[in-house]
Amino acid sequence: MDSVYIETSIVSHASAWPNSDPAVAVLQHQAKRWLAAEAPNYKLVTSQFVIDEATRGDPDAVARRLALLADIPVLLPDARVEQIAEEIISRSLMPATARLDALHVASAAVGGVEYMLTQNFRHIANAHILPRVYDLLEELGLPRLLICTPAEFLGDPSDGS
Q: What is the pLDDT along the chain (161 residues), one digit of tens a residue?
């Protein structure tokens, strides 16, 4: 069974109250729909970085995010994660201010998962960044990782229905 790294944006969108911004509402719907329809077909994993991010903010929102993460195994810490994240930043694939995003990519890559599920379009699921990230991971001899969004799994990028 293929494995999927669940990044923070997925649990944040899936657990948030409905947003009045139509673009955000679509992301929320897609995250919820992916977790309901697709998640059972995969071995889900996450990282301590996701858990740490999920514990920030409004206590009710924290409780909802942690409930979604409760049964998802956490990848074991690995010293290579920090090294790879630093390499991503030092090669200007992501800015230093996006170090946490680089740590997510590094965690998924070192964890050997097949997919990293995200709705972070600024620094992760970004067509300007992904080819260079994939090249770096290949150069470092890491297993193939596909970074994707729920819409790509669901096959309906417009409204997720």
A: 999 999 999 999 999 999 999 999 999 999 999 999 999 999 999 999 999 999 999 999 999 999 999 999 999 888 999 999 999 999 999 999 999 999 999 999 999 999 999 999 999 999 999 999 999 999 999 999 999 999 998 886 554 44
**Dist. CA 147–CA 88, nearest whole Å:** 15
Kindly report the pTM of this predicted structure. Answer: 0.93
Question: From CA 23, how far away is CA 52, in angstroms rounded?
Answer: 26
How many CB atoms within 10 Å of residue 19?
A: 13
Spatial separation of the C-alpha atoms in residues 90 and 105, rounded to whole Å: 15
Residue whose structure tokens are 């999927």:
4
Q: Report whether CATH 1.10.10.10 matches the domain 3-154.
A: no
Instruction: Please report, for the chain, the start and end positions of each structural domain, with discontinuous segments joined by +.
Output: 3-154
> How far is the C-alpha of 73 from the C-alpha of 13, rounded, in Å?
20
